[in-house]
Structure formats: C-alpha cells, structure tokens
C-alpha cells in the first residue's frame, strides 16, 4: 500500500481535559527534551529585534536572479566558458591577434565567437530580467504585521523572524510561520499548497489551543519563546517546541504554514515568522534539478577530439613542410612569392628584415597560423545550431495535439532542451505504478470483516435507502459509492453481537483513523414516494491521500459519515446518531512502521486505539490469545491474497482498548517525544510501538485503482520497440503481479523467477538457483550493451535463447524445469538487484522505497551503456526521475513535484508511446544527421593550399566568417527541425523501427569516418578542378577564392538536398535561397573598392567556363556519394528505407497523407 506518508499531519494532544499529574514513563529517552540554545533557533514571539540581535536571521527579501549589472558580464562569461570548445575558439582568436599570425583580419576573426557569446548572453540576460521583475513584485507585496499592539501594512521584504503577521483568506503566506490562532475558535486553518508541492487538495493546519485563546482579530497577546530546528528543505517535517505562560508544548508540521501557500476557507490567520526569505523551505527547495547532457553530444565530443588530433597532424605537416621549404630556398626568399626577407624600398628600413624571424621561429609561427586557418574543422556554429534545432523540435513536441490530456487540461511540457535526441535511444523504462500506470482514483470494492468476505453483491448507494440515511437528515456524497447489501444488513441487525461490533469498529476506524477534511456543501430537501421531506446535505472529502478519501467515503456510504473535524475532536454521524470523539493523539504513517494509529476517547470515557496499515506491518502486532482470533486471522489473510490477485490495494484494520494506566504512561511518553528536538521521529515510533501491540483484528479493505486508458497498448508497443519496462512499486507482490498481467507487462506464458529474500545471502542463493534452473548463464558480457563492470562476486548474466525475457513478481517459480518459455523475474523491495536483473526485459520490483527506486536506476546506469528513462507522478518518484538519463513527470493526483523535477511532463502514461516512437525517433535521426553534416560542411572548406606552406588564404576574411554564420546555417536548422524520414502513423504502427536508435544508425564512429573520407574527396575535387580549369588563365588568387566560395556553398547545399527525406516549401526556400543569398552577399562584398576582391564576381560570372567549372565540381564531388547510396539502398536497405518504400507505395495506392 503506497501512502504519501510524510504529508499526514499529526494531531496534537487534546487539552480540553483537566491536567493531571502523570507517573514517569518506564521508557526513558536518551536526551533532554529541550535542545540547547546553541543548537536551535530561538524565536521570541512579537519581538523581532531580540530575535535577530544574536542570530542575525535572514531577512524576508528573496532573490532568484543570478546576476546584477556589475556581475553580469564577468559571471556570464565565466559560465559560458565552462564549455571547453569556447576556450578553444578563444585561443584561436587570441592567436590571430598576434602580428606574425594574423591570417585573418583581427576584428573579423573575433566575430564568430562574439556572435555565439552575445546570443547566449542576450538569452541569459532576458531570462534574468524576468527573474528580477518577479522578485521585485514578490518582495513588494503587502501584509499586516503587529507593531505597537496593532496590525500595520508592511512589505514582505521588511518582515523578520519573530514578527507576528496576519493573513486573510485567499492571500499568500509571506514566510514560514507557526500558527498562533485563526478565525476558527478551535484554531484550525485550511491551506492550499499548490505553489509549494503542486497538490490542489486542502491541508489542515492547527494553532495550539494554548495560543489560539490569546488571539483576536485585531490583537495578539501571545508572547513566548519558540525553539525550532535549523532551516532545512524538508517541507513535510517541522520540529520545535514553545514556552508560553509557563507551559511547554510541542510544535510539528501541522502547526506551521509555509511561504507560498494560500489561506482557504478561513477568514484570517495569525502566526509568528520562524523562517524568512532564503531560509524558508520554499526557497531552500527552489534549486533546479541536475543538468543532463545527451549521450550523442558526448559522442560528438569524442569525434571533436579526433578532429583535433587530425588538425594537429595537418598543422605539423604544414609546419614541417614550411621548414623544409625555407631551408631549401633560404637564399632566394626575396625573389620568390609568399615570403620577403628584407625591405626593398629606399627609405630608412632599406635592407632590414621584413617580418622575418628566422627559420625555427617561422616554422613555429607556421604551425600556429595553420591552426588558425584549419580551426574551422571544429565548427563553433554547431553548438548554437544544435540549440536552435532543439528549440524548434521542442516547439513541435509541445504543440502535438495527440499528447494533450483533455481530462486534466495539461499539454506536453518540454522542461529540458539538452536531451531531445536521447528520447530516440531509450533502452530501459522505469515506471511507478500508482498514478502512472493507474489513475490514482480509488474505489472501495471489497471488505473482509471479522473473517467474512464482502463485496460480491454491490448496489449503488442511491438504490440503497439505508446508506447514510440519518432519519430526517441524509448525506449526499459527491461520487456514487457501491455498497454490499449483506454488509449493510449486518450493520443494522442485532444478532451475532461480536460480528456486528467488529463491523461497527471497522467502519469507525475508516471514518476516524485519517487526516481528511470534510467539506459540507449546500443543503436541499428531497421528497420521494412514501417518504417525508429529508434534508440532504452534500459532503465531499479533501485529503492528501486518494486512498484515505476512498475509505472515508466508503464509511459514509455505509452510514458512518465524518462531517466535522477540529484540532482535538471529530464528529461522526453513525446512522443518524451524532458521535463526538476526542482525539488524544495521532501517530502518523511512516515508511518504517507502515501504519498509522489514532487514540480516541468515546463519550463513555472508553479509550481505544484504532490502527490501519499494510498487512506485513499489522499481522505481527496482533493478539493471538484464542483459536477464534487465529481463525479470523487466517481467513483475513486468504481474503487479502484474493484481493491482491484482483489487483486491489489492501489495508488491514485493528483496534484495542487502553487502560487508564496505559493511557497515562503513553501520554507521558508522547509528550516527551513530541517536544523533543532530537530524533523526534524515532522517539514517536517508539511511543507508537507501546500502544500498537496486542491488537484485535477487525478486517481488511480492498481498493481498486484502475489502469489508465491506453496503458496495455503503450507497454506492448514499447516492448516491440526493444525497450525493457521495469515497474517499481510499493505495493505488495500479488497486487503488482495482477496489475502487471492486466497491463500486458507480464504474459500468461512467462515463467516467473521470484526473488523474495530478506538478506544478501538469501538473494544470492535464490539467484544462483534461478540461473541454473532456467538456463541463464553468467558471462563476462551480458546482452546488448552491457558493460563488464560486474561485481567480483557475480558475473554478468546472459540468456542464450534471445526469445527469453525476464520480468518480476513474487511467489514460487513452479515446475518449469528446462523450459524455453519466456521468463518473468519478480523481486521484493527488500532484495538486492544483481546481475540476473540486467538480462530481463520486464521487471517488477515490489515494496520499493523512494531511494531504492533511484538505486535501481543507478544500478542500470552504472553497469550498462544503455539510456534509461524514469516516469512517475508523485514526490516519491523525484529521486528516480532525477537519477535517470531522461525523467518524465505525470501531471496526476499526487501534486506536481514529479513534474517540477522532470525533463519532460505529460498528462498520461500512454503518451510515452508517441513521445518515444515518434518524437524520439525523429529527434535522434535529425540531430544525428545534423552533427555529421556540420562536421562535413566545415571540413570540406579546408582545402590544400599550394602557397609554399605559407597558409596564405585565397578567401576574404568576411567570406570565411559568413560561410558558417549565414551561407549554410539556415538550411541546416530548417532540416534539423522539419525533416521527417517516416510518417507518424508508420512509426506508431511499426514500433520495431525504434531499434534504429539502439543500433546507433544515425550517428556512430563508422559513419563519422565515412563522412570524413567523403569530405576529403570533395575537398580535393573542390580545390583541384578550378585549379586545372583555370591553369592557363590569368585570374588572380581572389578570383579563385570567389569561385571556391560559391562552389562550396552550392556543393554542401546540393549534398544536403540529396539527404532530405521530406520536402516542404520552407525547405526549398531555405536550401535554394541560401545559394541566392550567397550570390547577393558576394556581389555586395565585391562591390566595395577597399576590399582586395573588388569586382571579381562581375568578371567571373560573364565567363561560361565559370559555370561549367561549378557544374563539374558538383557532379564529380557527389558522384561517389550518390553511387554508394544507390547501391546500399538497393542491396542492403535498412529497416527505415524499407518502411519508406512501403509508405511511398501506400501513398500512391490510397492517398495516405504523410
């Protein structure tokens, strides 16, 4: 059973009863109740000056911006230069500023780096300006602060710890405050925490009765000292105590309201600020989720390294060649081109050295100059191009109407732009169950009461007049609840007193042992045939757990309606009789005990402990005093197994009476533990164990959590795509298996390997037995991309038959000796996942804690090269989502914490199919091609220079810069955003096409080197054909450079056009328009008299040889590529190429749209 355990606020000890001297508890705690002052924050209520004179707490002004006007430039540049490639380009630009190395113009050489830095800086500045504006609006809000015994308006930023603040309904809370009193005489307040954790359900918070009586709407007579823990980010816990009027009492999370929450259904609240500004829990939790980088980008850095090595070799060859050339011609340097050793003019410098530094230094300078010339091989434009392409891809993902959830009104969210392409290579999906695969909308279906099973004959509540019928008053639930007629009859009759009493306590426990808030709506009259007028009041329940809401609603349907709750009391309508119960204390649910309990005083002064929890934590604290109880215990266990097999979520209910002596000892222990500032949780668990023992079993519940729409189909498609789906749930094994079967995660023909050990040794033995029994052999290398990083104790797993799959439920494996059927592995949360699990395609992990979920994801990440995706909807999934390579949050019933921590967010699990199979595939194909093309289009521009190794360039400075920035960038971006190799329909109908990402078909080392070989060929063609064509002509070097420039632009664009899969109008405009723009820019540059290339384009374009040369370059350069593509597609077509041909044939056949 999964609970949002930490969100359950404990109720305080009731102080309506007279105080009595209690005997000292027989159980002693190890530390004092009050923490020493140097270990705790001391807050003097209403006295901020005294509070802050010693500790200097943070003010309430917040700042979420990164920069100021003074720090923006240095800080932003420092952050940007964390990208190592930028340091490389900075070094290149710096080298070009040295006079001996000024290959390009000094100003022009800085332009590409400055352009990239400025674009990023402008984006960062705009984002930070928005943060500054938001901070200014937030800090200048106003609220009422107590000063000189009266409330005066003050801005939020002036509030300090110790200030007493008054907040009205629907206003936001400015700081973390301990409630002193509210408009409700009992001190209760209703809070909406949407801004903090995304949960829309109202939460109850309580002002202590001691302080609530001293608070009025216009004044606050409370003075005292609050000792609280140091500021921390845990929004579900608060440990403090308060001294007031000589009394000392505990404060916990139910007594504090946090910054960002909104007051609801309460006229006003008054509280004292304990944490302000940056020390509030909201601000401490505002840190961004860890940044992630795509795997393809890491591969790209690997290729960049190899290009750097190649660049170094080329520069070394050029430098060596220059040194040898200088040695050979050292006596002729003044009469040869490219070098001058001395001045020729008749001025004062005649005969002196002309920028000549000797052969060794000239060789060294040649090496550095070569780096400057060839640095374009490592493209600076690639980084900004990738950012723009990812932005465009995200726009289309967000706008995909097929990923819009109409039920919740939520559309797809792309919260990270760095990992779009990783969506196309996911191998493992780790999914939460509740709220992710299921709807997290609970319906009460089955009940086991006093050893008898109910729920087989269900009637609608409206058809059962006994349901919640209270004489002249009847409660109308918001949702219709089906009730069991036999169980209803049991509650009405007087026979079998024990059974009826058990049923009475059963539903009383459902109504009382919870933290839900009853919301009563309008009253109206109804008059049926033969019935008198009845007052029908609508009632709804707000709770932090959908399970609790379902159970309380079920109790109401059976005549036990909770309709009033205060800080120390609750009122239940039991079939028309008002039953007021005193709440003496509540032990909240926690993941250690896996149960919650409430201590209730009935009107006849009988004290009972009502407990509910998971079966594993309940059965070992039940009383076994007679055979009758043991029979009930065994019957209930069989019913629980039956419910779990049906996929129901189960809880066990029990109770016991407390004697006056036990009550007093528990109260003493409870008060000591609840006021402690050290290990309060452990001490409260110890106190709970004192009363949670020797319980009488009342029964068990079965609540249904239906599967979301489209989940089975989505999981089946993911499986066909070669993606391994693991489900990590906190539910018991039988429930997890049932859900696994219903959502097609598990199939009936699978053999289940069940690992259900409670120790590492037991797990090792179970795993070893399973490996032998099912033919799973260990090897140094597992399937697919499994790394050889296994523990020394265990080898990597392998399955010889590729048809075998392993998934996970709990139970006994059965009789499948030597079978070849698919395998299913089921592991309990207390077990360890070893090598066997990595060879599983389907895995079910039961009873898993949140940190265990993250540990399981980390296990796969650390031991394989495969990409992982984690998907969940609750706060307990945050660590798993952040651990995975890709995190997906579901906008569900459990708030938005998972969404806020995720990289992508969507409304339903079924959208994951479209996200991966369509957008993931397309993004990977596009980015993979984009990276290879960018390496190609920059490297092809590096041609051999027959200039005596002097690195003299035939191109103008502006042509070199504009080539990457303008001439060829726009087509790359358009194709990277819009190109589509297959239609969405084809990708969804053929999930196996997703395997192209697993096989790295779009980007791999082999493709990179093939591209580099093709690039070398095209560079040679581009250089030598114009050289041979104009061999006997008289055109100068600038004319040749102009021909090379236009030829390379046309060449790379035709090359791109050969690879485009889907043409659109904007694609035509981008590709062919870039050629037109290049000609336009060249005409402008060649029309400026001060440039050395003045007039060259006019002279060249008038010659037929010019156009024939360009045509010859395109044909010869692209002929090998065209031939290889044709041969490859005819004789070795890929799955994608086959699917494209089938799609084309289908289009012609039935007009299927792309």
From TrEMBL:
UniProt GO BP: phospholipid translocation
Record carries keyword Lipid biosynthesis: no
Active site feature: 432
Feature: compositional bias, Polar residues: 777-789
Cofactor(s) named in the record: Mg(2+)
Origin superkingdom: Eukaryota
Molecular-function annotations in GO: ATP binding; ATP hydrolysis activity; ATPase-coupled intramembrane lipid transporter activity; magnesium ion binding
Localization of this protein: Membrane
SUPFAM superfamilies named in the record: Calcium ATPase, transduction domain A, Calcium ATPase, transmembrane domain M, HAD-like, Metal cation-transporting ATPase, ATP-binding domain N
Membrane topology classification: Multi-pass membrane protein
Enzyme class: translocase
Domain named P-type ATPase C-terminal: residues: 899-1134
Region annotated Disordered, chain positions: 777-816
Annotated positions binding Mg(2+): 432, 434, 873, 877
Pfam families: Cation_ATPase, PhoLip_ATPase_C, PhoLip_ATPase_N
Family: Belongs to the cation transport ATPase (P-type) (TC 3.A.3) family. Type IV subfamily.
Protein's recorded name: Phospholipid-transporting ATPase
Taxonomic path: Eukaryota, Viridiplantae, Streptophyta, Embryophyta, Tracheophyta
């Amino acid at each position: 059973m999964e609970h949002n355990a930490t969100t359950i606020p404990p109720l305080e000890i009731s102080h309506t009863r007279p105080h009595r001297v209690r005997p000292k508890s027989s159980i002693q705690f190890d530390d004092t109740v009050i923490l020493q002052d140097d270990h705790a924050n001391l807050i003097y209520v209403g006295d901020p000056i005294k509070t802050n004179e010693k500790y200097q707490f943070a003010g309430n002004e917040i700042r979420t911006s990164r920069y100021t006007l003074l720090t923006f430039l240095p800080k932003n540049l420092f952050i940007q230069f964390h990208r190592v490639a930028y340091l490389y380009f900075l070094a290149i630009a710096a080298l070009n500023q040295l006079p001996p190395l000024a290959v390009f113009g000094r100003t022009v050489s800085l332009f590409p780096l400055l352009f990239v830095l400025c674009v990023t800086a402008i984006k960062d500045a705009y984002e930070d300006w928005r943060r500054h504006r938001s901070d200014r609006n937030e800090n200048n809000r106003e609220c009422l602060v107590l000063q000189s015994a009266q409330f005066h308006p003050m801005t939020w930023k002036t509030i300090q710890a110790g200030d007493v603040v008054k907040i009205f309904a629907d206003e936001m809370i400015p700081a973390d405050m301990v409630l002193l009193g509210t408009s409700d005489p009992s001190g209760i307040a209703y809070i909406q925490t949407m801004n903090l954790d995304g949960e829309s359900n109202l939460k109850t918070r309580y002002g202590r009765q001691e302080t609530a009586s001293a608070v009025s709407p216009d004044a606050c007579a409370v003075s005292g000292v609050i000792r609280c823990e140091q500021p921390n980010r845990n929004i579900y816990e608060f440990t403090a105590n308060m001294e007031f009027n000589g009394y000392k009492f505990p404060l916990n999370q139910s007594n504090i309201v946090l910054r960002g929450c909104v007051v609801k259904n309460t006229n006003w609240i008054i509280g004292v600020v304990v944490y302000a500004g940056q020390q509030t829990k909201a601000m401490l939790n505002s840190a961004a989720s860890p940044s992630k980088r795509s795997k393809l980008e890491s591969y790209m850095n690997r290729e960049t390294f190899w290009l750097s090595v190649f660049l170094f070799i080329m520069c070394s060859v050029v430098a060596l060649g220059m040194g040898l050339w200088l040695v050979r011609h050292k006596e002729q340097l003044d009469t040869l081109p490219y070098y001058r050793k001395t001045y020729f003019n008749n001025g004062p410098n005649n005969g002196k050295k002309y920028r000549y530094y000797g052969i060794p230094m000239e060789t060294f300078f040649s090496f550095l100059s070569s780096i400057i010339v060839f640095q374009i091989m490592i493209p600076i434009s690639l980084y900004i191009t990738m950012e723009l392409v990812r932005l465009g891809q995200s726009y289309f993902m967000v706008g995909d109407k097929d990923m819009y959830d109409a039920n919740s009104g939520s559309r797809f969210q792309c919260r990270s732009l760095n990992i779009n392409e990783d969506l196309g290579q996911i191998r493992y999906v780790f999914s939460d169950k509740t709220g992710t695969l299921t709807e997290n909308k609970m319906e009460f279906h089955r009940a086991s009461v006093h050893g008898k099973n109910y729920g087989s004959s269900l009637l609608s509540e409206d058809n059962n007049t006994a349901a919640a019928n209270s004489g002249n008053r009847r409660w109308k639930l918001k949702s219709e609840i089906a009730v069991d007629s036999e169980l209803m009859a049991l509650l009405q009759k007087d026979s079998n007193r024990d059974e009826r009493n058990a049923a009475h306590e059963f539903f009383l426990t459902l109504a009382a042992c919870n933290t839900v808030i009853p919301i009563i709506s309008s009253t109206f009259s109804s008059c049926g045939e033969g019935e008198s007028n009845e007052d029908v009041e609508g009632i709804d329940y707000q709770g932090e757990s959908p399970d609790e809401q379902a159970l309380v609603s079920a109790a109401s349907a059976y005549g036990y309606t909770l309709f009033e709750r205060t800080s120390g009391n609750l009122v239940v309508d039991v079939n028309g009789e008002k039953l007021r119960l005193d709440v003496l204390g509540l032990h909240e649910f926690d993941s250690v005990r896996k149960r919650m309990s409430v201590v209730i005083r009935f009107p006849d002064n009988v004290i009972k402990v009502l407990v509910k929890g998971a079966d594993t934590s309940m059965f070992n604290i039940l009383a076994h005093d007679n055979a009758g109880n043991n029979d009930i215990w065994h019957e209930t266990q069989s019913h629980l197994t039956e419910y779990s097999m049906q996929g129901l979520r189960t809880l066990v209910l029990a109770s016991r009476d407390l004697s006056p002596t036990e009550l007093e000892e528990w109260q003493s222990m409870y008060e000591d533990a609840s006021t402690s500032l050290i290990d309060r949780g452990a001490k409260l668990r110890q106190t709970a164990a004192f009363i949670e023992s020797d319980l009488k079993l009342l029964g068990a519940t079965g609540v249904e959590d239906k599967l979301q729409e489209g989940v089975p189909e989505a999981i089946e498609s993911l499986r066909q795509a070669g993606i391994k789906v693991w489900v990590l749930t906190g539910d018991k094994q039988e429930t997890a298996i049932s859900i696994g079967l219903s959502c097609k995660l598990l199939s009936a023909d699978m053999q289940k390997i069940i690992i259900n050990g409670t120790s590492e040794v037991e797990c090792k033995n179970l795993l070893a037995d399973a490996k032998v029994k099912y033919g799973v052999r260990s090897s140094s290398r597992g399937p697919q991309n499994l790394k050889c990083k296994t523990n020394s104790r265990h080898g990597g797993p392998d399955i010889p038959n590729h048809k075998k799959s392993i998934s996970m439920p709990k139970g006994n494996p059965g009789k499948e000796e030597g079978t070849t059927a698919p395998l299913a592995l089921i592991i309990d949360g207390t077990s360890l996942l070893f090598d066997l699990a990595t060879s599983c395609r389907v895995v079910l992990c039961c009873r898993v804690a949140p940190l265990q979920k993250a540990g399981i994801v980390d296990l796969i990440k650390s031991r394989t090269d495969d990409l992982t995706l984690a998907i969940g909807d609750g706060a307990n999934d945050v660590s798993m989502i952040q651990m995975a390579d890709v995190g997906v949050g579901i906008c569900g019933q459990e708030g938005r914490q998972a969404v806020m921590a995720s990289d992508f967010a969507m409304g339903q699990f079924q959208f994951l199919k479209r996200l991966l199979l369509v957008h993931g595939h397309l993004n990977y194909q596009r980015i993979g091609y984009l990276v290879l093309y960018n390496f190609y289009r920059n490297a092809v521009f590096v041609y051999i220079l027959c200039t005596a190794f002097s690195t003299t360039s035939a191109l103008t400075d502006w042509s070199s810069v504009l080539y990457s920035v303008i001439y060829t960038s726009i087509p790359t971006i358009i194709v990277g955003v819009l190109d589509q190799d297959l239609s969405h329909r084809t990708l969804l109908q053929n999930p196996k096409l997703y395997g192209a990402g697993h096989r790295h078909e779009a980007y791999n080392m082999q493709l990179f080197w093939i591209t580099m070989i093709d690039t070398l060929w095209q560079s040679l063609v581009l250089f030598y054909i114009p050289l041979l064509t104009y061999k006997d002509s008289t055109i100068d070097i600038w004319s040749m450079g102009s021909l090379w420039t236009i030829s390379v632009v046309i060449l790379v664009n035709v090359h791109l056009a050969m690879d485009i899969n889907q043409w659109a109008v904007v694609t035509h405009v981008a590709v062919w328009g870039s050629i037109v723009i290049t000609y336009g820019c060249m005409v402008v540059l060649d029309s400026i008299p001060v440039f050395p290339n003045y007039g060259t384009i006019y002279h060249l374009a008038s010659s037929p040889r010019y156009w024939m040369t360009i045509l010859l370059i395109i044909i010869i350069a692209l002929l090998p590529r065209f031939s290889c593509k044709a041969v490859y597609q005819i004789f070795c077509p890929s799955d994608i190429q086959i699917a494209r041909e089938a799609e084309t044939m289908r289009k012609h056949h039935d007009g299927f749209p792309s």
